[in-house]
Amino acid sequence: MMTDAVQKVALVTGGSRGIGKACVLDLAAAGYNVAFSYARNAEAAQEVVKAVEALGRKALAVQADAADGNAAQALVDRTVADLGRLDGLVNNAGITKDGLLMRMSNDDWQSVMDTNLSGVFYTLRAAAKVMMKQRSGSIVNITSISGVYGNAGQANYSASKAGVIGLTKSASKELAARNIRVNAVAPGFIATDMTHDLPLDTIAERIPLKRLGEAQDVAKAVTFLITCGDYVTGQVLQVDGGLVI
Ligand code: NAP
């Protein structure tokens, strides 16, 4: 039985920039010690570590390729070894390799599936083992509105994100008896490096709330699901300014 005295711990994949970074900082502000992974940008990761420590919480940055199942297991093991437990997992790491279907290479298909879908499975499986022993935990998988309604030029990305929704629903049913909740957050267009090259002004016009999302908008939804959505599981929460209603 968990008491208020327990120092809770969260793990965020791809936490060095963008939405993942915002999740790391929001969870730290909510009182969590936070571990996070990154792919290459060690300098950005160290800045995030400092920002978490400035909030009075412990931070652990680990270079770990989300597409590598052994690295995902090692990431979870290191989190538990260094920070003591695991209460929340945010599967955020993701990439795009956009292109028209007819010209999409096998590599561009496979690498997006490996990172965005298999990567979520690897980390979720490793974290669920820890959470099953604790008999508590909350997992949030970052999908996308592209996985909900499709997007021309993103067959690989939409398929991977739709897969994340199916994985989320199945895992939520399988893990509920152990008091582990599994939900997905589906962002719309969020201003990060990933969307930097898109025609953002034109896109904003199509959004009912008439603006792009900020990484913080997504982080707030994630923190809600991790920290206090106690009776919410198997859901896909769209954070898209009303784009897909
Ligand atoms: P971003 O700005 O490109 O940041 C990506 C983050 O993931 C970075 O921390 C990066 O680490 C890390 N990363 C990339 N590949 C990785 C790998 N193989 N293993 C481990 N970490 C990896 O992306 P973002 O816009 O914040 O997107 C975050 C998530 O939200 C993704 O799953 C994306 O599909 C989803 N999403 C984004 C939007 C949007 O509009 N931005 C919309 C819908 C869904 P390094 O710093 O080391 O490169």
Structure commentary:
The protein is globular, with a radius of gyration of 17 Å. A seven-stranded parallel beta sheet has the order 3-2-1-4-5-6-7, sandwiched between helices. The chain starts with 8 loop residues before the first strand and ends in a 6-residue tail after the last strand. The chain contains eight helices and seven strands; from the N terminus they run βαβαβαβαβααβααβ. The model has no long low-confidence stretch (mean pLDDT 97). Helices cover 47% and strands 15% of the residues. Helix 1 links the parallel strand 1 and strand 2. Bound molecules: NADP nicotinamide-adenine-dinucleotide phosphate. The site of NADP nicotinamide-adenine-dinucleotide phosphate has 31 residues, from helix 1 and strand 2.
Overview features:
alpha/beta, 7-stranded parallel beta sheet, 8 helices, 47% helix
Q: How are the SSEs placed, and which strands pair?
A:
Blueprint: E1 9-12, H1 18-29, E2 33-38, H2 42-54, E3 59-63, H3 69-83, E4 88-91, H4 106-134, E5 137-142, H5 145-149, H6 155-175, E6 180-187, H7 200-206, H8 215-227, E7 236-239
Parallel strand pairs: 1-2, 1-4, 2-3, 4-5, 5-6, 6-7
Helix pairs in contact: 1-8, 3-4, 4-6
This protein binds NADP nicotinamide-adenine-dinucleotide phosphate.
Total helical segments: 8
- Give start-end ranges of low-pLDDT stretches: none
Topology, number of strands: 7
Order of helix and strand elements from N to C terminus: EHEHEHEHEHHEHHE
Class from secondary-structure proportions: alpha/beta
Which strand order does the major sheet show?
3-2-1-4-5-6-7
Main pleated-sheet profile: 7 strands, parallel
User: Which hetero ligands occur in this complex?
Assistant: NADP nicotinamide-adenine-dinucleotide phosphate
Average pLDDT reading: 97
Shape: globular
Distance between the termini: 40 Å
Helix fraction by DSSP (H/I, runs of at least 4): 40-55%
Q: Strand content of the residues, in percent?
A: 15-25%
Radius of gyration: 17 Å
